[in-house]
Structure formats: structure tokens, C-alpha cells
Amino acid sequence: MLQKTCPSCQTNSYSSTNNGMWICPSCNRNITTVKTYQNSQKEMIQNQLLRFSHYKRII
Ligand SMILES: [Zn+2]
User: How far does residue 18's CA lie from ligand 1's centre (Å)?
Assistant: First the structure.
């Protein structure tokens, strides 16, 4: 799942692909060139790993 935040109205929009035009559903701005965020489990796992390594350091 890809996520973009519209720079005009700060609305998050989601898409499963990054092909073609991407129009903000709120203000209809063309946000095709806006950076996408990979809104996936990968990010969650990375955050958990960071927390885990921090935990190990404390011990
Ligand atoms: Zn917008």
C-alpha cells in the first residue's frame, strides 16, 4: 500500500499501485510527483527492531 500526503490540504490518500496520475481525492490537485510512503508491515518491523536493539543496549 502506497500513501501520499497532499501538500495543499494535508489529506492522506492511498493506492496499491504507483502507475499513472495520482489526484488528491479531497482537493483534486495532481500529486503524482509527491513522494510516496510505503505504508506496510516492513516499516512496523523496522520500528520493532529499533526498539529491540535499544532494549538490548540497556541490559
Ligand atoms: Zn489535496
Answer: 17
**Full residue range of the structural domain in which residue 45 is found:** 2-58
36 CA to centre of ligand 1 in angstroms = 14
Is pTM beyond 0.70 here? Answer: no
Number of domains in the chain: 1
pLDDT in tens, 17-58: 767 899 999 999 999 999 887 655 566 666 666 666 666 665
For ligand 1, the distance from its centroid to the CA atom of residue 30, given in whole angstroms, is 8
In terms of Cβ atoms closer than 10 Å to its own Cβ (0-12, 13-18, 19+), residue 32 is exposed
